[in-house]
């Protein structure tokens, strides 16, 4: 199948590579061209604009940074919609606003173009190992057509409902991760302050009621002082802001998530650590402590 | 081996039953006698006081509610120490203050009595299925002597260091669980408000970066409106209070844990739901929402 991929960052590049490995013909575009180099070496074609990617593809994936990037890449003159026709299926994997996903789907529908929102969970490891979880919103027919592609890049695909439902499911996911990341960070701070062996603590906690994916995957990275982004802190902050805006619209007061957002705000906006992975949150606490002394 | 068990609540009774099933001779005491009935029927002997339990046992486990209960059961006239001698090994499985664990160990040492702090994680299910995690503080020699007993009731036993280290490790564990429980609660509130199928959400989140023990074990119970205590909310609140007191002593500001404590305070102290399990936290949020309308 002819596949297009727009946005080849940490996650996008790994997903695109898996689609290439599955034998598909791949055309790529990324704002920073150098990030497509490995894919092009592996056999992908480069196109100069998102529009040109779509013109050469049956199914186009987008995975960019922020809702504004999504809006731009879909609606600009050289954008996704400019190159689409009634045969095109568009899949936005960016974690973005449910309302924007609905807007894109409605615009697509008005022109006979099928659109799905399909954000993922599982981080860089999940993207590389094709063990992601894909959360889809949109019409059943389009979903069934591209499901075999999702299955090449993930171990779990779920259609949650109409346009925007994939984004809502992803928000639910990020709210959960806000809990595991803040919990993990504070657990390790306590562990070190109490003089316990943090490796023993991670090992014991993994076996009981405290067990979680962040603990198993980010715990060891933190102990190695490895803050390489599996998932950028600034993207996670964006997700939490969207989740809280949506929650606010629904009349929900989610205080744990709001507290996590404030902590990531300090990390990204005050300490300028947004290019670290989400596990870098612990560096913010350390700085707060040092300054208080 | 002759084993004593003082405190046969939800957790204690299940652990004691596993020790009985392993072929040990068991003597039990509980403040509310009726809670020992099933154990006595299964072959355990009843003793009228903690002191009498100890007098008939080589190893005595205690698992009571709060630090003040621990202090009382160890130091009162008819208490644990009153019946102990240099052959006795005492194991407190109550989640309690690290400083109290140190005090008990020091008092024991001054009289030649071996004492361990050994709180557990894994809830009612872990206690029943002997899949608990045991976090131990105290001397290596006493630890080695009773390790085979721990192995009958758990799947993971770790000696973390001297007296109090088991309690510190348990605090680290509870800080992590504060993150998973608040995250899970807010995830489900968001899910319902967004009109997503909560079973599908739990299923998808279990497969990705949001995966955790609370989600898998308490998520389904919440969807069934089952707030039966696997672990009492009032006990969890006690644990969080201890954790934050200890963190404060160490100069740590753990804002996510502090926020979780405030939420459980509302549940236990304002809405009087302390006898529900920790998963009942979601009922507090619902009430807040209704009142704001």
Characterize the structure shown.
- Chains A, B: Belongs to the HIBADH-related family.
- Chains A, B: Pfam families: NAD_binding_11, NAD_binding_2.
- Chains A, B: Keywords: NAD, Oxidoreductase.
- The structure is a homodimer of 293-residue chains.
- The first copy, chain A, is an alpha/beta fold and 293 residues long.
- The first copy, chain A, folds into two domains: 162 residues, Rossmann fold; 125 residues, N-(1-d-carboxylethyl)-l-norvaline Dehydrogenase, domain 2, CATH 1.10.1040.10.
- In chain A, the strands form two sheets. Chain A has a six-stranded parallel beta sheet. In chain A, strands 7-8-9 form a three-stranded mixed beta sheet.
- In chain A, helix 8 links the parallel strand 8 and strand 9.
- In chain A, helix 1 runs parallel beside helix 7, helix 9 packs across helix 13 and helix 10 packs antiparallel against helix 11.
- The longest helix of chain A is centred in the middle third of the chain and has 29 residues.
- The mean pLDDT of chain A is 96.
- Chains A and B meet through strand 7, strand 8, strand 9, helix 9 and helix 10 of A and strand 7, strand 8, strand 9, helix 9 and helix 10 of B.
The name of the CATH superfamily of the largest domain in chain A reads NAD(P)-binding Rossmann-like Domain
How is the CATH topology of the largest domain in chain A named?
Answer: Rossmann fold
- The oligomeric state of the chains shown is homodimer
Rg calc of chain A: 20 Å
What is the typical, i.e. mean, pLDDT of chain A?
Answer: 96
The count of β-strands of chain A is 9
SSE order of chain A, one letter for each helix or strand: EHEHEHEHHEHEEHEHEHHHHHH
* Biggest sheet overview of chain A: 6 strands, parallel
Greatest contact between two chains:
A-B, 78 and 78 residues
Biggest β-sheet: strands ordered side by side in the sheet of chain A: 3-2-1-4-5-6
CATH class of the largest domain in chain A: Alpha Beta
Low-confidence stretches of chain A: none
Question: What is the number of domains of chain A?
Answer: 2
Domain 3-hydroxyisobutyrate dehydrogenase-like NAD-binding (chains A, B): 164-283
Keywords (chains A, B): NAD, Oxidoreductase
Domain 6-phosphogluconate dehydrogenase NADP-binding (chains A, B): 2-161
Protein name (chains A, B): 3-hydroxyisobutyrate dehydrogenase
């Amino acid at each position: 199948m002819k596949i297009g991929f727009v946005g080849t960052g940490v996650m996008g590049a790994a997903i695109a590579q898996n689609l290439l490995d599955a034998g598909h013909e791949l055309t790529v575009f990324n704002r920073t061209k150098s990030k497509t180099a490995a894919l092009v070496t592996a056999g992908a074609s480069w196109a100069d604009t998102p529009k040109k990617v779509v013109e050469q593809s049956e199914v186009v994936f987008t995975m960019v940074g922020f809702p504004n990037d999504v809006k731009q890449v879909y609606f600009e003159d050289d954008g996704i919609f400019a190159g689409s026709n009634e045969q095109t299926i568009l899949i936005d994997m960016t974690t973005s606003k449910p309302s924007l996903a609905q807007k894109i789907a409605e615009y697509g529908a008005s022109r006979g173009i099928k659109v799905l929102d399909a954000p993922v969970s599982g981080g860089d490891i999940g993207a590389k190992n094709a063990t992601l979880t894909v959360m889809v919103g949109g019409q059943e027919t389009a979903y069934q057509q591209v499901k075999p592609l999702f299955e090449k890049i993930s171990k779990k695909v779920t259609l949650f409902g109409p346009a925007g439902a994939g984004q809502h499911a992803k928000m639910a996911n990020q709210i959960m991760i806000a809990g595991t990341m803040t919990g993990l960070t504070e657990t390790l701070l306590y562990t070190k302050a109490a003089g316990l062996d943090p490796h023993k603590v991670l090992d014991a906690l993994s076996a009981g009621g405290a067990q979680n994916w962040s603990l198993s995957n980010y715990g060891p990275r933190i102990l190695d002082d490895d803050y390489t982004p599996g998932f950028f802190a600034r993207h996670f902050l964006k997700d939490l802001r969207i989740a809280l805006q949506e929650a606010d619209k629904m009349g929900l007061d989610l205080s744990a998530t709001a507290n996590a957002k404030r902590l990531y705000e300090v990390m990204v906006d005050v300490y300028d650590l947004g290019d670290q992975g989400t596990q870098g949150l612990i560096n913010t606490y350390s700085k707060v402590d040092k300054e208080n002394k």
